[in-house]
Amino acid sequence: MGWRDLFHSATWKRSLALRMTLVAIVWSVVALAISGVILVGLFRDSAERHLDDRLKTSLDGLAGSLVAAQRGSPLEGDSLAEPEFKLPLSGWYWLVKDGRTGIVLWSSDSLYGDALDVGNTPADGEIHARYLEGPGGVQLRVISQVITAPAGTGYDVTVAGNAAQLNAEVMTFRQSVFVTFAVFAIGLLAAIFFQVRTGLRPLSRMRAALADVRNGESDRLTGDFPIEINPLAQEMNALIEANLKAVERARANAGNLAHALKTPLSVIINESRTEKGPFAQKVLEQAATMRVRINDALEQARLAAERRVLGAVSDVGSSLKGIARVLKRAYADREIDIEIVMPKEMRVRVERSDLDEILGNVLDNACKFGNGRLRVSMEESRSSQTGRDFVIVSVEDNGRGLTEADRKTALQRGRRLDESVPGSGLGLSIVHDLVEIYGGTLDLGESALGGLAVRIGLPSV
């Protein structure tokens, strides 16, 4: 993956740590590179000024010798401090030209008869510095100045020094800066990673605290969070408390409504049964319908309240064993055989009362419509679409089963496929609603025992 793909990838957009790290790395690299260029430039300027000072000292010596020559003394270039002016083609040269004609009057022994084309210097009395190529292709640092002797004669004086030493010093300094900054960059990268991990650690603690709430190990976010994210933790705790209060309020309202309607409806049904005639029969039918609708509405209100419950965690095995004991006593005359295959302890993100209702309805139907044998098995599975982990509970019986059309009808509220068996027809539909609310799945199929197989998928912990 290239840098362009990395910066535009979903990982870059979704990862706060990656964005912070990459931005810090890019900024650090750019800052170090700019600092290195500036430092090398400053060092070169300093080294260049130092070389110019050496050349100016030699130029001043030549100027003094010219004044002495005007008084009749010979021009003493040998008096210059730099011994390189005597070595042939050393890269250190001087020459004096006639300021008017440009003819070379004197030159250093180091030129060894070679020519040094320095051009004409402006007669403004200022020192002019520049680079040019000397004998043998060597780069020279040159300073020139037009000097007017007391007799009025003008001399174009030029002093040149080998720039190779200057370039070598700059290269050495550049390498030192590169090595130093490379070591500094490694330490800086380590500091960046440490800073990002340390800075984002409170978010990891908040995520762990939220996981504890979801797993039922805590009822609120606990921990000492920084002031930047502490308001978020407080808002989440307030939301959790508001949801819990809404659940309790919905449950209380549902219970009050059930008690308020239960007695009047029972009176209507009982009175209708004592009367004969089509009117009484019609009232009885409508009262029964009202009972189904009221149960339906109460169940929907309870489900809506349960949907807002956070941190609900239940053990599937203990729920199954408790329901199995109750059903064996309830169907003691049929000697129901309930086999539970449980490889290990499994927990789901479902309230215990809802889990008991889901499994209780399914197992009760298996007992009613089976022929005395039930097998309950559990396994873990991961959704290929969402990546979430589920516990799959399979309930199989050895009854006559259902056709494909009947399986669809069985999930409809209030529909009963076998009128000979008592019931309201709400069992599987309630199971379907509960499972759907918790983000699970419910499938009906054929059992290896010959009857119906109900597969329930619930989010695992």
Automatic annotation (TrEMBL):
Main location: membrane
HAMP domain ranges (all copies): 197-248
Pfam family of the protein (one): HATPase_c
Keywords per UniProt: Kinase, Membrane, Phosphoprotein, Transferase, Transmembrane, Transmembrane helix, Two-component regulatory system
Domain (Histidine kinase) ranges: 256-461
Transmembrane segments: 21-43, 176-196
Keyword Protein biosynthesis: no
Protein name (record): histidine kinase
Name of the coding gene: phoQ
